[in-house]
């Protein structure tokens, strides 16, 4: 274990050897993780045959396949927790748009700019969450991270390029710079909310257990530092970090 209260000890490799409160936290974290993956499939699905170019449609299909695999990976971890985990999996597979835990995953993609901004901003938060689990104290979770992270990078690059092309080429590609800017203002606050409450006790417990590397606020600040120059390079503007926020 590389950090936390038990730094230097052997990693936990089975659900049975976990302390109860740590097991409960992993179940909670993996339930949210799986829920976001399956919700994202529902959001992307209408655009599989509506994306503006053949390449865009191909990448959309890859994103949907990636999200399904990531959801399956989270469910495999949940399944190790017996009947409790299986019950949560069954509930996850029945959820529909509007029933998901995080606000960003209950909003439909009404325009192509929504697809671009979501994959650029919201999926990037997902990458921060996965990075926080890298080399964590629970072996099965730590080993799932490298492939998930490599696949998520495709999503970020895709979203960035969609917004950049809209901002620079407008109707010659799809939409307009104004639509791209509107999408930034819509999805950036939802992305910042996804990190959770700044003073979250759950976040601190996850660090103490060696599960996550950063507090919510530390991860959010890293994220803001990363996306600020990216958006400027597109010729677009970020709203203030407190704009339209619902989780502070």
From TrEMBL:
InterPro entries: Aromatic_CoA_ox/epox (IPR052703), Ferritin-like (IPR012347), Ferritin-like_SF (IPR009078), PaaA_PaaC (IPR007814). GO terms for cellular component: cytosol. Pfam families: PaaA_PaaC. One of its GO terms (biological process) is phenylacetate catabolic process. PANTHER family: 1,2-PHENYLACETYL-COA EPOXIDASE, SUBUNIT C, PHENYLACETIC ACID DEGRADATION PROTEIN PAA. This is Phenylacetate-CoA oxygenase subunit PaaA. It comes from mine drainage metagenome. The lineage of its organism: unclassified sequences, metagenomes, ecological metagenomes.
């Amino acid at each position: 274990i590389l950090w936390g209260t038990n730094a230097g000890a052997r990693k936990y490799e089975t659900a049975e050897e976990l302390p109860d409160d740590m097991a409960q936290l992993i179940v909670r974290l993996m339930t949210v993780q799986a829920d976001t993956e399956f919700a994202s499939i529902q959001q992307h699905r209408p655009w599989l045959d509506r994306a503006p170019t053949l390449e865009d449609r191909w990448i959309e299909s890859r994103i949907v396949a990636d999200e399904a695999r990531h959801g399956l990976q989270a469910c495999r971890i949940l399944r190790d927790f017996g009947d409790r985990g299986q019950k949560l999996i069954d509930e996850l597979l029945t959820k529909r748009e509007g029933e998901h835990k995080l606000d960003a995953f209950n909003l439909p993609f009404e325009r192509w700019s929504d697809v671009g901004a979501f994959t650029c901003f919201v999926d990037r938060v997902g990458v921060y969450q996965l990075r926080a689990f890298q080399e964590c104290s629970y072996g099965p979770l730590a080993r799932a991270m490298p492939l998930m992270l490599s696949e998520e990078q495709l999503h970020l690059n895709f979203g960035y390029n969609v917004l950049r092309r809209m901002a620079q080429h407008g109707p010659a590609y799809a939409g307009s710079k104004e639509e791209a800017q509107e999408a930034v203002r819509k999805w950036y606050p939802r992305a910042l909310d996804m990190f959770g409450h700044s003073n979250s006790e759950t976040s601190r417990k996850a660090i103490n257990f060696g599960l996550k590397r950063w507090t919510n606020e530390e991860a959010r600040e890293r994220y803001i530092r990363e996306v600020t120059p990216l958006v400027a390079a597109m010729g677009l503007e970020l709203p203030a970090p407190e704009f339209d926020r619902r989780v502070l």
